[in-house]
Amino acid sequence: MKRSQRLLALLFAVVLALTTFSGCKLADSGETQPVTIDTVTNETAAPEEASAPSPTFEVNESTLQALETLDEDVFRWYATSDGYTYHMLVDDPASYQIDPSTVTMTLGDFSEEENQRFAAEAGEFLTRIDQINREELPAERQFSYDVLRQLLEDFSVYDEQYAYFYEPLTEYRGIHANLPLSFALFELKDAQDVEDYLALLADTPRYLGQVLAYEQKRAELGIFMTKDALDEILTDCKTLIDSRDTLFLYVTFDDAIDQLTSLTPDQAQTYKDRNASLLKNEFIGAYQTLYDGLKDLRSHCRSYEEASSYNETEKGYFEYAMQSEGCNFLSVEETLEMLKTEYFYLYNDIVTIQIKNPNIRDEQIELSSGNMQKDIDYLKSVIGDFLPELPDHNLTLTDVPEELESMFSPAAYVIPAMDDWKDNIIYINTSIEDPTLLLTLAHEGYPEHLYQAVYQRNQDTIGLMQRAVNFGGYAEGWAQFAEFLITEHQTRYDEQYVRIEFEYSMLFDAIIPAILGILVNYYGYSETAVENYLTGIGLDGERLAAAYYNTVVDQPYYYLEYAVGYSELAQLYRDEQDTVGDRFDLSQFLKTYLDLGPAYYEQLREQMDVWADGLMEDAA
């Protein structure tokens, strides 16, 4: 499930710097063959040349300590920036030398001033890291230094001209929808957690008031949402308002309170009464205020043609946000060509499979044993051949509460606190029929979100902030690639059927809408132009244009984490296979990649190229 470690933070505060990556581009020729670059080898060995001496450095323990101290300081600053982030990242504050009384128990501060403060404080940390001599660090910690430095550089960027281009209210991941879910997933382990929860609930009017003020400013600037988008948001808000007496947060809170055996019956009832009062008054009242305020802005709504007609400043922000979603520094042009390459690669494979078996998708195969625990056990057995074994941990499969079913995806892994990785939960939405449940569980559990969290949080060479910050493109790229790994190595179901199901999903749920989002928003394609483009690449242009056009205008960045993240990793995988040839070892490739930890793809590719070069040198 899509979620962020700073779910309620001012997300546009943390965006990538406007750095581009110079790389090969796929010509926009409309060809339906993937582009490959052949490696050139010499038939005759060249005469040996005197090798240049390798640079040497001496590890300085005080320099290493300075980096670790800085990393911890940045983590404490980041984790205590607001009450919700604190609870999402920290279970035992003493383990990070955090005094809970110093944490302001709010949902954050959705304001331009907060954005400026965040950037300024990050800049102070950036100054500190620049005083650390990277060459005096152990080789395995130089990479975590590089990632931390890039994070701080990104955090310290504040561009006033982009201050109101972020849209906090969207259909799939808007604050208005995520806020109730965030409260529902808030763990109540003791009385202090309960007090903090209620304090955050009481903060809802202030926080949503700031969100409304932000939207009012967007309307004033002429960059407000479309009428269709507004209607979706208003409908969601109205649904919550109408559930004043039946909201699922009554049930989730009461159930959690009943699990706290340390409370007396009177204490438990007092907490339940406080929660009920806050929900009926402050919480629902905040949504009513947001609803009324947004409704008053209807006259400021733009048409889809107006909303997708970007000026140069808006195009600059598009690239800015696109890089943040994709965890890279590629330009818009380079990103589009990379996505086209992946499109043609997947499309060609689908065509090849269907030529051999034209009726392969005529009858749907249920990719599940019918027992989710058995499916999980099977996935763990499959990945044992190519992934490192995880340390001991627990996994609980839990049905989504009935009250949450309409707002939940088929399944979701709830990322635990940094110091509480042993206990893991995957929520299953049993109200949704999921014919590819095995791949869904691979995405949320093994070998993806759960596997990544448990494995990497136990790697001391990965920086603390590397493990804490949500690298969305990295996480979702690995999640989609995890599904690919299962399609390649599972033996329970027809290999070609599972492969084509995965590839259809990647194409139509990620790659194609991501491409169209760029064409529509950055290059100004009309719906008719989108239809012509899709028809030209072999698809049902009329149907797909009608299905995608409004969505990619209203949510231009939604698909990028998935599409860009997967394309980056899939193409890295194929490139390293081509480079290494017969010496390529999947388990070694995956372990090397995971041991680096979350990072930007340019940084990861550089290190993986070093790994590949090392294998080639060994072979030589």
Q: How would you concisely characterize the structure shown here?
A:
By secondary structure, the chain is an all-alpha fold.
Q: With helices defined by DSSP (H or I, 4 residues minimum), what is the helix count?
A: 24
Distance between the termini: 45 Å
Our Rg estimate from Cα atoms comes to 25 Å
What letter string, H or E per element, gives the SSE order? HHHHHHHHHHHHHHEEEHHHHHHHHHH
Shape: globular
Find the count of extended strands (DSSP E, 2+ residues). 3
- Report the structural category: mainly alpha
Task: Describe the strand arrangement of the main beta sheet, using strand numbers.
Answer: 1-3-2
User: Main sheet, how many strands, which sense, barrel?
Assistant: 3 strands, mixed
What are the segments in which pLDDT stays under 50 over at least 5 consecutive residues?
Answer: 1-55
Q: How many domain modules? A: 4
| Helical amount | 55-70%
The percent range for strand residues is under 5%
Mean pLDDT across every amino acid position? 89
SSE inventory with pairings:
Blueprint: H1 61-79, H2 83-89, H3 112-129, H4 139-155, H5 175-184, H6 191-202, H7 204-220, H8 227-242, H9 248-258, H10 265-295, H11 304-307, H12 312-326, H13 332-356, H14 372-383, E1 394-399, E2 411-414, E3 423-428, H15 437-444, H16 449-456, H17 464-468, H18 472-489, H19 495-521, H20 527-536, H21 541-554, H22 560-580, H23 586-596, H24 601-619
Parallel strand pairs: 1-3
Antiparallel strand pairs: 2-3
Helix pairs in contact: 3-4, 6-10, 7-10, 8-10, 9-10, 13-19, 13-22, 14-15, 15-18, 18-19, 18-22, 19-21, 19-22, 20-21, 22-24, 23-24
